[in-house]
């Protein structure tokens, strides 16, 4: 029987947390991004809060960073990872009436941190949804994706 | 000073977990949905696994259900909620080369379960990403949104 | 298609957290028990510690109680439950060179607390293993089982 | 043998999570407070950040609220509690070169929320320590205490 | 005063998380096993589900892997460990009307992973109990034990 | 724009988990301490329990050790850390009618363990509060502080 190209399954199709013990420790970076689209009035409230009070994006940033640390608990086959850096950046896009989020995660370890960056971006955007849902239930999270990955055997990868 | 329409902030702009103690307990339902888009070859691997071995969608379903229970830990201002039901359905869409996910969450309580449904869908889709990323790093999660909400003072709401 | 007698699956075989929203809240009790068997010398160390210093059983008791509260995170399809009481009792059995553990869990709610009692007993016994493994790696946990259950539609059940 | 006045122990001295199943559900409120003392220069940095950027107190507030929800995991014999409200207020005290924190926690349930308020205040103050420790390792947390408690059999209690 | 042979206690009998800072990092493996015994009809339902729908063992496998990652939270004096591999195998035993579980855990670190393997096996078996308890409350978990350990100062150990 | 001396903020004032990837791994130790003050009668109950039954301090010690392991989840910008040792010592002070707590935390890593020691001491003292609050609601936690720190670029630091 040939192995599945899906490495989280062994040759009999059973899921496992794959063996990374033989991999060398290298510096690893992943960047992920996503967006939340909303009504112009909602975006105006977020912008107003960021400047003075009711800081939606400041709270979303903390939620994103904390979620990165819990990725191994949330994604069943992820390895626990000792992150060395997490940063989350939110940008208000008036034209698109959206907030864009970009998260960078880093570690020095045996496996990549793509899931940490993606999970952080996802929870950051959901936190914006939570805080604004009383005024805009129809917000939509879109285009959550990996945009860059460095380190490890597979080297440098860039999306868009 | 007038209150912010963003109820998670008090009149001075400080974040709080809003008081729901005076709300009546009612049956509450929320449905959320989202999609992950991928290469046709990746979708073929998922379909093959679901039928026989390497069950990506079965594992994503468990991750979604477990994430619903942890929502209060992930989203800073969410209340802890005693969920009475969570179900997650995944549909393979050949035409769009995507997997669609729909989650229903229910409770009998003082506040809604929208965030539980959205968080579950998000983590379910990220679990698919995790299991297929070795063959397709460019997958994209899109259109994560609330599609229905019942119960509580605000009544019935439907998106699309 | 007929439904599975395994209620955690819907009629198409998909796992879900079953709907308990329509159940009435009743007082519920579950008792679970299990044992760990060991060398007589190991049991003597545990007995000595309980009397004066190095209180293995006191620490196992706390681990059991704390694990009961985390059951919903550990067992994928368990509901989150607001436990109203947990007690864990350990008994030294010289004849069998074993420690027996019995846990009682209670709640006032819509679903039973069997898994909470069983998980607590299991983690309590594993904590004994952890603390004594430096002197006795061959310890064995046996006979972990539900011994009683009250409340809810299914009424009173007793095992042995 | 007479029972210990410490209710977390049974008559043989074994710890347990005490039975609250027979208590009636009432509205319960607890307020706790504490302070962190520091160098005037450190306080000036916190004040500057609160006004414009580097919002130490905004992050401490989120940490406090999230900690309140995890109290049952941290304090071994605490019951899990469905909090209905948490608010954390920080006050800058120039004269004392300190930040004071006051947390209010509420639930509608069978047991009090003192530990939730105290744990939240404690983690909020520790978060201030964490964010300022690079410039002031000698900060000191003082006077962490319960200041008010309402609801339940013991009625209204006020400290100072 | 002589030290206790129970290394989790200091010379005065106080529990601590023992110092492993001076140990060298080596590859470490632990294998643990256990069984759950049940009615023949229950085993038939599990077997049927594994082949087509209602995959009890697939869900138990995920629960086991996730529990391995939480061991440090559950067992009070365990060190947090960066696992590099976890695999859980379930075998249906018609003659014994039982399901056997074997878990392998690995890390590259300063302390062993016995507790991770044992905790994973335990939670995997409890998940089977949870999913089948509606049809068979009398199931029994037996013979949970360490079967092999490699790495570290104590070298290779095998049980049976 | 000059950087803030508060390193948890970047030059635009956004919070992040600071990059420690380039730091060398060294042995790190932190010691923290704090006290809880109470009525003489309460202290007498704690002393009685420590000697025979109702071991408040034994339970507080376990709570402290477990909290040290969860620090990264509680303090938003803390790095996850693989602790190699945690010890918590409680001293009864008759003259001050107080219990003093001192925690030592150690790791071999890229960042310090001050927050782990402080969080452990804080939760240990709160656990004493929890177990004695039925007899003494006015207990007060005071003087929680770092007392020593070794390892890393900043070298040896001692408080008092």
Describe it:
6 copies of one chain form a homohexamer. Chain A is of the alpha+beta class. Chain A has a single domain (35-150), classed as Molybdopterin cofactor biosynthesis C (MoaC) domain (Alpha-Beta Plaits, 2-Layer Sandwich), CATH 3.30.70.640. Chain A has 4 helices and 5 strands; from the N terminus they run βαααββαββ. Chain A has helices at 40-51, 56-69, 71-74, 114-132, and strands at residues 26-37, 83-93, 98-109, 140-150, 157-158. In chain A, strands 2-3-1-4-5 form a 5-stranded antiparallel beta sheet, covered by helices on one side. In chain A, helix 2 runs antiparallel to helix 4 (114-132). The first copy, chain A, is elongated, with a radius of gyration of 18 Å. The mean pLDDT of chain A is 92. Chains in contact: A-B, A-D, A-E, A-F, B-C, B-D, B-E, C-D, C-E, C-F, D-F, E-F. The B-E interface holds B 55, 58-59, 62-63, 66 and E 55, 58-59, 62-63, 66.
Spatial order of strands in the largest sheet of chain A: 2-3-1-4-5
Secondary-structure element string of chain A: EHHHEEHEE
- The CATH architecture of chain A would be 2-Layer Sandwich
Quaternary class:
homohexamer
What is the rounded distance between the termini of chain A? Answer: 36 Å
* CATH topology heading of chain A: Alpha-Beta Plaits
Regions with little confidence, pLDDT below 50 for 5+ residues of chain A: none
CATH superfamily of chain A, by name, is: Molybdopterin cofactor biosynthesis C (MoaC) domain
User: What is the radius of gyration of chain A?
Assistant: 18 Å
What is the total tally of β strands of chain A? 5
* Proportion of residues in β-strands of chain A: 25-35%
* Coarse structural class of chain A: alpha+beta
* Highest CATH level, the class of chain A: Alpha Beta
Measured as a percent range, the helix fraction of chain A is: 25-40%
Profile the largest sheet of chain A.
5 strands, antiparallel
Which chains make the largest contact?
Answer: A-B, 58 and 58 residues
Number of domain units of chain A:
1
Could you report the average pLDDT of chain A, rounded to the nearest whole number?
92
Shape of chain A: elongated
Counting DSSP H or I runs of 4 or more residues, the number of helices of chain A is 4
């Amino acid at each position: 029987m040939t192995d599945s190209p899906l490495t989280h399954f062994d040759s009999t199709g059973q899921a496992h947390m794959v063996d990374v013990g033989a991999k060398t420790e290298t510096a690893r970076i992943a960047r992920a991004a996503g967006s939340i689209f909303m009504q112009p009035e909602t975006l105006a409230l977020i912008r107003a809060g960021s400047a003075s009070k009711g800081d939606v994006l400041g709270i979303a940033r903390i939620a994103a960073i904390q979620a990165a640390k819990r990725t191994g608990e949330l994604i069943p086959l992820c390895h626990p990872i000792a992150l060395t850096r997490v940063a989350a950046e939110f940008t208000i896009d008036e034209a698109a009436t959206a907030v864009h989020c970009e998260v960078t995660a880093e570690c020095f370890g045996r496996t990549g941190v793509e899931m940490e960056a993606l999970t952080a971006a996802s929870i950051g955007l959901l936190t914006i949804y939570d805080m604004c849902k009383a005024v805009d239930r129809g917000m939509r999270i879109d285009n959550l994706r990996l945009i860059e990955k460095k380190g490890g055997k597979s080297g440098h990868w860039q999306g868009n």
